[in-house]
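To the team - phosphoenolpyruvate complex, inputs and output below.
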Amino acid sequence: MMVAVLKPNATKEQIENLTEWLKGRGLSVHISKGEFYTILGLIGDTSQIDTELIEGLEMVESVKRISEPFKSANRKFHPEDSVIDVGGIKIGGPHFQMIAGPCSVESPEQILAIAKDVCAFGASILRGGAFKPRTSPYDFQGLRADGIEMMLEAKRQTGMPIITEIMNADHLPMFEKVDIIQVGARNMQNFELLKELGMLKKPVLLKRGLANTLQELLMSAEYIMAGGNQNVILCERGIRTFETYTRNTLDLSAVPMLRDLSHLPVVVDPSHASGIARLVEPMAMAAVAAGAHGVMIEVHNDPVNALCDGAQSLTPEQFSKTAGKIRKIREVVTA
Ligand code: PEP
Ligand code: MN
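Output:
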């Protein structure tokens, strides 16, 4: 729904022309005439309407969207929480999951050892980066296709579904056996990639961009859903603010806000949000208390020598302790 306030000098003919144009776009138009102003109430699917275009018309004073521009992701049109099935493991609604693993896959031994540990300590989905979006081209870029193969081997041995990041739609054939495709913060608005993922049935974990609003995140989810893929998991991973002591600023209010606005599951990544291992446990607990359907935590068996993000990685032992606390907070949330 949208409301357009017309200028006092709008002529009858201008109002008629605009009304006809809007009706031609499938909207019903409710006209209310005051002493000075005329207000048009536009009812129907206004997601295709360019508000700036209407605002630019000479007889228009202002335009306001009353409803959100996202539809498939909108809770108003889908009141029940969505539950996403990842090879029998459910996330969303009453189902909570812990995703854990290293920032990057480094070797078959490394990913397998970490997979076994995090599985034993309560994680149900294994993470690991094979294609890494690094700020510097001189930093470790990931093991690419080999990394995915190593994750698949860890999956075979532990039974855990796997999640790994895609950076280019041309790589999709390599992701055929991957259980959840991750879209990283830097690609949240890579719309061509999102469209390609919309044509799949596979779950997609969509991370919020470093400087993106929640509405922009939901519009990106909408890109995937509009193509037919309803299996989208939203992920808050911290946003860039003026604060420098932490890598990013974890926007915890995103969790209840996204849950109000959307039926999609919401996961929090306290590792990238803080960048500091000792902050991961308190932030993970806070995320669960705020209503997250899952947490994604970086775990490494040798953080000091990790090829990427060692400073924010928990050891398996630390993860075990954190997982125990998360379970306790979860009990309080669901009580
Ligand atoms: C990651 O999860 O490995 C990652 C690169 O995260 P982000 O896209 O949130 O920076
Ligand atoms: Mn990382």
